């Protein structure tokens, strides 16, 4: 039976107001976007999406598929088989229905390969970094973050409510100084290989700085996994820090492993803490089975063919040597990223466009995605590039280089 509310003894019932006629929609609320767009155009900072065909004739030196595994038949098969067996989606968050045996298998394989006690897989490397930084900090924690860190670590710091101090790039003594005198929990965060210039962080010295002050170290090994360390087992293994009680690392499954997703690796108690507290883990649908299956297949392939890691590093060194010999300002690569300085954002955009017109896809990094305001052509070395392809890429880059 419908419930009639009793008349209020305290308030007069307000007279029913006739429903106002809806106003016509006006775009004025978004007019500010046109102003922002015009500013981007003026500054040469417009970004556009360029959907690629499945079989592009262009030579790719822009993707992060360092080992050439994204389209490897075994990896594609691992992804397809997982989708058929487990479904197209994970069906829920990891704590509800989104944890399959495949996720657990991938976590064990990643932990073992990289030398850590435990691992937790998330839907992206971005989510893994947010999870690690926010779950390992609280109000009052001091976070010391390298000035060249990836946006996902920076966003983790922003979300964390901790006090963040930005340390000069790759400077362990600055990290030590920032940690000095802080009473309480502290965490230093760094990329292992910086995405913009491809230089490596001084991990042993950073670990020493942290240990001298009782701080934990979090390393984003997105560009190290599959490239650095024995057979591509990562920068932490290469630095002798894998599995240490005060070290946590994050990885992405979307670069060397040719799939999609991310993971946090560390001591079992840290991983258990993340399962219980990391919001980007708890409130996010589990990684799609196809991505988990693809990553697992790539990991197994890399274990069988460890020479892929060394080849990616060799290709990077080769690119750097030839570009430098041609007079270009290429940064010495520590992993598979090779960065070449451009005189301005406009010049970098034009350079990348000229390369594309000549059949080569190169990345273009410019403000605001670069911490130091320097624009670059960013090349990624792939283990599956042939010597002829390397030579052709260098010829194109040199022939289209801006005149300074
Ligand atoms: C250093 C670094 N960390 C994290 C990420 C994010 O990883 P994902 O693409 O899996 O979200 C990237 C991706 O570009 C990266 O370069």
Automatic annotation (TrEMBL):
Assembly and binders: Homodimer.
Enzyme Commission number: 2.3.1.47
UniProt keyword annotations, A-Z: Biotin biosynthesis, Pyridoxal phosphate, Transferase
Name of the featured protein: 8-amino-7-oxononanoate synthase
Primary enzyme class: transferase
Annotated source species: Streptomyces albospinus
Annotated stretches, region: Disordered: 1-25
Protein family per UniProt: Belongs to the class-II pyridoxal-phosphate-dependent aminotransferase family. BioF subfamily.
Lineage of the organism: Bacteria, Bacillati, Actinomycetota, Actinomycetes, Kitasatosporales
Pathway: Cofactor biosynthesis; biotin biosynthesis
